[in-house]
UniProtKB/TrEMBL annotation:
GO terms for biological process: cell differentiation; nervous system development; positive regulation of transcription by RNA polymerase II. It comes from the Eukaryota. Residues 49-101 form the BHLH domain. Residues 40-54 have a biased composition (Basic residues). Gene3D superfamilies: Helix-loop-helix DNA-binding domain. Pfam families: HLH (PF00010). Residues 21-54 are annotated as: Disordered. This is BHLH domain-containing protein. Keywords: Developmental protein, Differentiation, DNA-binding, Nucleus, Transcription, Transcription regulation.
């Protein structure tokens, strides 16, 4: 009899667990619908896949940015020609060089 009572108790526990688990899932899915757009965006951005894709896009963007600065640097006259310039120095030198070229065209 004890084993039958134990079996019934185990069966009841399993049944009650099965009834509880789907309710939790429903709560989560209904909870996801209740999330604001901003909260869903934050959760999506927190995933490893999103972070990896974002890092790859950023790496490509920075690489293109650096290539553009290298191309601009090739067009600017400096002494010595192989002098290493920072990005801000390249921009300032480009501004001065453009102003000089405008002055030459006006004269």
């Amino acid at each position: 009899m004890t084993s039958n009572a134990e079996s019934r108790e185990v069966l009841q526990i399993i049944t009650s667990c099965n009834n509880v688990a789907p309710a939790r899932k429903r709560e989560k899915s209904s909870d996801m619908g209740a999330l604001s757009r901003e909260e869903r965006r934050r959760r999506r951005r927190a995933t490893q896949k999103y972070r990896t894709a974002h890092a790859t896009r950023e790496r490509i963007r920075v690489e293109a940015f650096n290539v553009a600065f290298a191309e601009l640097r090739k067009l600017l006259p400096t002494l010595p020609p192989d002098k290493k310039l920072s990005k801000i120095e390249i921009l300032r030198l480009a501004i001065c060089y453009i102003a000089y070229l405008n002055h030459v065209l006006d004269a």
